[in-house]
Amino acid sequence: MATPWPRPRVVVSACLGFEAVRYDGSLIPDEFVAALRAHVDFVPICPEFALGLGSPRPPVRLVESEGEVRLVQPGTGRDLTEAMAEFAGRFATSVGDIDGFILKNRSPTCGVKDARVYAPNEGGPRRRQPGLFAAAMAKAFPDLPMEDEGRLTNRELRANFLTRVFASARLRDVRTFGELVDLHTRYKFVLLAHNPRRARELGRGLAGARSLPWHDALAEYRRMFMATLQHPPTLGRFADVAAHLYGFVADHLSAEERAHFRAALAAYRRRALPAEAILTLLRSWAVRFRVEYLSAQTLFEPYPPELESLSTSARG
Ligand code: SF4
User: Fold this and answer.
1) CA 231–ligand 1 middle distance (angstroms)
2) CA of 248 to the centre of ligand 1 (A)
3) Pairing mode, if any, of strands 115-118 and 61-65?
4) Of 54, 66, 110, 125, whose CB neighbour count within 10 A is largest?
5) What is the C-alpha end-to-end distance of the chain, expressed in Å?
6) Of 219, 222, 227, whose CA–CA distance to 198 is shortest?
7) CA 18 – ligand 1 centroid, Å
8) Nearest alpha carbon, ligand 1 atom 6
9) What's the 62 CA to ligand 1 centre distance in angstroms?
10) What distance in Å separates the CA atoms of residue 93 and residue 15, rounded to the nearest whole number?
11) Pairwise CA distance, residues 145 & 175, whole Å
12) pLDDT tens track of the chain, all 316 residues?
């Protein structure tokens, strides 16, 4: 992949190591977020602090009453639902170009999926849903990756998040139709691994985009490109892509090397070998046989390799 790497702009919950803005006056250092600082321009935001609630502050929570979920501060009796919606709307229109979100899990404001929703009369939580700020951002930026720091300890989720964030940033650097075609060519197998049907539609859309005004063509391509990456790669799709890539070098290989690859791919399909092992094999052959089209594929390095080996407490 061409260098230098773009620097994605990522919105992050400010309490994840940036500012002591939590309800109890604390902050939560996060190893992954800290490591990303060398590669990413973060936009830290604490929506509750931005509403003037201060830190420390009486905690807020989501309460469901008569079918409606409200953001309330039981300690003061304040209902912050409208104020949070207004703030989120202002933030979405003023934040500028961004490539993704890392938000604090379980928060009634920032939680991506798992904010607790309570009944009005105290008692335990009824269910979980996104926090109000996270929900507003997901609606305003439907194609951008959004994760919480808890889910990002999973190796596969983290890799998928980074792939999408860096893809979005790369796309923002595209200035001409020729650069767009080049990006599409390099991302071909990333796209196929995520969603082959949408990847093919994207290729057809690109062919027809030359007749459109440049900014319309780029906006439509970006929408379809990011939507394609929303679908996480599956084991079967990745194996299909690997077999396709193998076709570019198979004729150069000895019978033993071909047998070795078939055995490795079968092991991958049984989950006995990671995808990285297959990619390393294919990449080494692409370099050895100087198959430049193959060497240039982003699938081999969708984000800075230093981020691959982050020593976070990966569960995946
Ligand atoms: S979770 Fe969100 S609202 Fe809560 S302290 Fe962190 S940034 Fe602020």
Assistant:
1) 28
2) 49
3) parallel
4) 110
5) 26
6) 227
7) 11
8) 15
9) 14
10) 22
11) 23
12) 455 899 999 999 999 999 999 999 999 999 999 999 999 999 999 999 999 999 999 999 999 988 899 999 999 999 999 999 999 999 999 999 999 999 999 999 999 999 999 988 767 778 899 999 999 999 999 999 999 999 999 988 999 999 999 999 999 999 999 999 999 999 999 999 999 999 999 999 998 888 889 999 999 999 999 999 998 899 999 999 999 999 999 999 999 999 999 999 999 999 999 999 999 999 999 999 999 999 999 999 999 999 987 644 433 3
What is the residue-wise DSSP string for the chain? --SSPP--EEEEETTTTT---STTS-----HHHHHHTTT-EEEEE-HHHHTT--SS----EEEEETTEEEEEETTTTEE-HHHHHHHHHHHHHHS-S--EEEE-TT-TTT-SS-EEEE-TT-SSEEEEE--HHHHHHHHHSTTS-EEETTGGGSHHHHHHHHHHHHHHHHHHT--SHHHHHHHHHHTHHHHHHH-HHHHHHHHHHHHHGGGS-HHHHHHHHHHHHHHHHTS---HHHHHHHHHHHHTTTGGGS-HHHHHHHHHHHHHHHTTSS-HHHHHHHHHHHHHHTT-HHHHT-GGG-SS-GGGGG--S----
Q: Does pTM surpass 0.85?
A: yes
**Ligand 1 closest atom vs CA 13:** 7
CA distance 32 to 286: 32
Q: Is the peptide bond before 120 cis (omega within 30 degrees of 0)?
A: no
